Prior knowledge:
It is a single chain. It is built from six helices and eleven strands. The chain is α/β, with parallel strands linked by helices. The protein has one domain (about 1-185, about 215-245): Survival protein SurE-like phosphatase/nucleotidase (Stationary-phase Survival Protein Sure Homolog, Chain: A), CATH 3.40.1210.10. Strands 3-4-2-1-5-6-7-11-8 form a nine-stranded mixed β-sheet, sandwiched between helices. Helix 1 packs across helix 4 (about 135-155) and helix 2 runs parallel beside helix 3 (about 110-120). The longest helix is centred in the middle third of the chain and has 19 residues, at about 135-155. It starts with a strand and ends in a 7-residue tail after the last helix. About 40% of the residues are buried.
Amino acid sequence: MRILLANDDGVYAPGLAALEQQLRHLGEVVVVAPATEQSGVGHSITFLTPLSAKSIHREGRHWAWAVDGSPADCVKLAIAELYRDEPFDLVVSGINHGLNAGINVLYSGTVAAAVEGAFFGVTSVAVSLEYDEDADFQAAAVIARNVITGLSAKEASQGGLFNLNIPTSATERPSELKVVPMGLEQYGSRYEKRTDPHGRDYYWALWSEPEQPPPESADVIQLRKGNVTLTPLRFDLTDPRRLEQMKSWDLRT
């Protein structure tokens, strides 16, 4: 199995190194990651400036490509150019330092890298670990490896897209894996207005709970209960229900 590994925390992130070590048990791992941290960039790609890819060496050999672009850039460049004659069987993105659950999936560079892999028809998995200063990426990587092994057996060559989130507690004691939908509730919709020493206003994003709590089945709730969550995703944003309704609408130019 040939595995492409990317992330959004940057090529030197500990989560990337830990996951690479574990994925090597499954096959050949190629690392193509951003040169600098790209958290929260979503599915941005580079159009107006050229991309450069620098070879990073470890122990006297090529270890990774550091790309001066977004996570999606990394996967796109790897599949379409750097390794265009050497197809991948799996794309993995992570381990992100911080959960990418609920509506945050839409902002996540980690998930975007996996989405880009799925664009190319390659089974892709985004992996994230709950933020903690003492995060155990090694333990999280073992969990990710076990889940990915099971997915690969069922999803071989089908091009599925999956979002895996690991709570801190799961790295400390046994945890269940829950296959669940993403929560759709909006978090963090408030800002605190402040003034800098020069009298200019600026705004600091605040964390806030949604007005309506997520359903029990949502990933964000299951993560709070200490369960590892796995969510199948898709990148087709078409609303099929509304599309059918609109066929009867008398809309004109």
